[in-house]
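Reviewers of the previous submission asked for a worked example of the structure-prediction workflow described in the proposal, so we include one complete record here. The input consisted solely of the amino acid sequence. No template or homolog information was supplied to the procedure at any stage.
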Amino acid sequence: MADTDYGKALGERLRNIRMQKGMSLRDVEHASEGSWKAAVVGAYERGDRNVTVPRLYELAGFYNVPISEILPDAAPAGPGTVDDRPKVKLDLKRLQQVPGHEGDPLLRFAHAIQSLRGDFNGKVLTVREDDLMPLALAYQTTLEDLGIRLKDWGLLADEPAAPAGEAAPQG
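From that input alone, the workflow returned the following structure tokens.
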């Protein structure tokens, strides 16, 4: 991987972590009491400016993630990579509000993925659509019906929650 490509990949990882934390560049500057200037962090994220190892270590500490989670793989991304596949964002906070034991398989699914990834967000979990098949099987339904159920429960992070009192369709 060329240096510029690696810098851009590193910047993308930094941006993703910041966004998982729900922070804007100004939020980073404010929360760090000026230790991290918005313009500098933005330049790191765009790959316009190289970050030194000590500063990267400090930034990992600021975001409270291991530095290994920030460093991108050295292998170049090719066509058909994971990033090209459709994704679903699950709202983990709303998951706690799923009625009864209906959310148990989804909760186990989310915890397993978070554990494998070392996901430090806790608010939103992004998964590839095609990775939802085991979850559909756990609910004894199709992917399409699972999508409807997730939407009705208000678990799709990009969708508004269903009005209170509306139940999800039974599969």
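Residues 92 and 123 are 5 Å apart (CA to CA). We consider this example representative of the routine output the project will generate in years two and three.
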